[in-house]
Amino acid sequence: MNIEILKSKIHKARITQANLNYIGSIGIDEDLIEAANLIENEKVDIYNITNGERLSTYVIKAGRGSGTISLNGAAARKAAIGDYIIIVSYATMDFEEAKSHKPAIIFPDDNNRA
Q1: pLDDT at 60
Q2: Catalytic-residue membership of 47
């Protein structure tokens, strides 16, 4: 049996940009991507702590060390600059493997530094 479990989590990142006229996705500082064990184009769920909105999108790299968290395209309507969000990804794995899996969870500061 396979189950879906938490793989990666960036808890309480702050939105720094919202660009409605971009093709889509969430731009994440490359340092945060690596710290959270994410990869470019990986599907993520976004939970907006500030307003309760939820959405799914995919990761694109933002400048390393920039602190950028940018919701783009239609997702830009789901958050405002300064909102706090949780970014999560999940993995499917065998039930027994999942018992020992340890997700990558990071808690960035107010400048989105890991």
Answers
A1: 96
A2: no
Regions of the chain short of the pLDDT cut 70: none
Q: Strands 25-29 and 17-19, how do they pair?
A: unpaired
Q: In the chain, where are the structural domains located?
A: 2-94
State whether CATH 2.40.40.20 applies to domain 2-94.
yes
pLDDT, residue 46, reads: 98
Mark whether 58 is an active-site residue. yes
> Which helix (H) or strand (E) element contains residue 30?
helix 30-35
Which residues lie closer than 8 Å to 27 by C-beta, 6 or more apart? Answer: 17, 60, 61, 62, 68, 69, 70, 72
Catalytic residue (one of 25, 66, 70, 89): 25
